[in-house]
């Protein structure tokens, strides 16, 4: 090896610079059009490249270059861009929608990842670098039609590329100790997705409502390395939504909102903050179709009901009632038409405040009341003169006009309020609309133990073991979020207290049942020892010990009555029982339980006597 080769070998694998993210400034290309947010103090979400190092290494081609790499162990910044290709199948009944989209991910490679890529290329492999790549979890997806990393011929899924315009303009001059994208290696991948997402619709203002179609993506990178999402810095337009092939005839896409940030895992088992991407498509329903096909026709039905006032006289009473009832049944048909277009929600539509109803339209309910009132007026028309009937005609006509004008004004106000939702972010949507439903958590430490006296069995009020200890069950406890309104908080607390009372009563019931079963087993065991064929001092001593622990008069009577008939019919066994009773009595003389055992022996003798006189003849006849 020559002196020149030695100098080249010594010059490779040398760390030249180390640049931390906190020391970097936002590139001029990435500055906002206004001064807002240009001085971002949040280190994690600055539009910079992250912690980097500059190395002099030998590249894949054998040349010696100075390249920038991501610093190992630091927060990895993944720069994304996206394209929404199609939105379709917005289902009001199932509360779902379908979307096809692409996500492009770019992240700066570490030195180890770059060298691994070079080795794979030399080995004629596809060049994939899988030491680290974003593991994405789509939280509200219920069905995945397509979700794969695109495979590029001869390059694999994860390509190694160099960009000349990443976070800089091509004409910018970069200092030697500052990051230069033209002297760096990026890993680029493309994720193709087509999924069906769940989206709870807020239909209080139907058909004048506005909705958010959300796609929530969590980053779940395995290991100690954290990933952070940022927009791709190659072009200011890092995302697009193309609706040319979308099927959303009943909706208009007004705007969209993309949110990149972190989620706090306060109430979960994780101790880190995960990065999320939330894409919200802000859509507005085309209300004219529902207005002319439903509400206008219901208004016509109510208007036609006024023709009943033309049927005057007692002879036309039947025709008048028949007309009104027919119109009521027609309105009911339109109610089913509305129900077919809405899910079974627990509130009235076309209104702002929630009611405990089953998806009815407030406008149609008032129309029902109007028609029913008209039928009631028709039933008492015989007791009125024609002048009063004309007064009622003007009353119903005035009410019909006034309440339709009021509903038109109310619909305009609802539309204006719904349009405010087009500007809400995720936190405002959760706190203002969804009310943050409570979550259930299981804690094995939150339990109350009750120990039975003179036993080793421990019964818990919050844990049930099932039959013969087969199950170990824990009760979930609700955690009320801060964003929930006071009415829902009080309702959840009331339900939780009610469940706790029921659970405590059930636990005490099983506790008492277990104690009764234990006492019954001990009493049965004592009887078996007392009337055993083999009498010994040890058995008598055990009988004395068990008899002192339990009070089993009632159990003894049951066991005496349930003894086998043939055993009680034997005279020899009866005499042996009397002898054993006498010996046991002498052994337990002076004990506190003599009277109890004496009663037991008397019951036993009476039972055997009854068996001898009544059941022995039956046995002999057999």
Automatic annotation (TrEMBL):
In terms of InterPro entries, this protein maps to:
Neur_chan_lig-bd_sf, Neur_channel, Neuro-gated_channel_TM_sf, Neuro_actylchol_rec
> Where do the TM regions start and end?
289-311, 323-342, 363-384, 390-411, 597-615
Can you provide one Gene Ontology molecular function annotated for this UniProt record?
Answer: extracellular ligand-gated monoatomic ion channel activity
Entry keyword annotation includes Transmembrane: yes
Write the record's keywords in alphabetical order, separated by commas: Membrane, Receptor, Transmembrane, Transmembrane helix
What are the record's GO terms for cellular component?
membrane
Topologically, how does it sit relative to the membrane? Multi-pass membrane protein
> Taking the first listed entry, what is the main subcellular location of this protein, grouped into a coarse class?
membrane
Q: Where in the cell is it found?
A: Membrane
Q: What is this protein called?
A: Nicotinic acetylcholine receptor alpha 9b subunit
- Write down the species: Reticulomyxa filosa
Origin organism lineage: Eukaryota, Sar, Rhizaria, Retaria, Foraminifera
